[in-house]
Design a protein that fits this description.
about 45% helix; 3 helices; mainly alpha
Length: about 70
């Protein structure tokens, strides 16, 4: 997919996912320098949801796998 990405992550700490996304945002300066571009890496703020139930987890897996189709 050229216009978005899906991540299914498990956080080890309370703010783990937010911290990971913030760290990825810090990568932008490096990325822009290497590829001679400017601006943000992400178009919008990331969206997240908690997956607690095993059945919902399987639905999320399927959605991510089938999304490019």
């Amino acid at each position: 997919m050229t216009n978005h990405v899906h991540l299914l992550c498990t956080a080890k700490t309370t703010n783990g996912i937010s911290n990971m996304m913030q760290a990825l945002g810090g990568y932008v300066r490096y990325f822009n320098n290497i590829y001679h571009r400017s601006g943000t890496l992400w178009e919008r703020r990331f969206k997240s949801c908690i997956v607690e139930e095993e059945e919902y987890l399987l639905q999320v897996y399927r959605y991510i796998e089938l999304n490019p189709v």
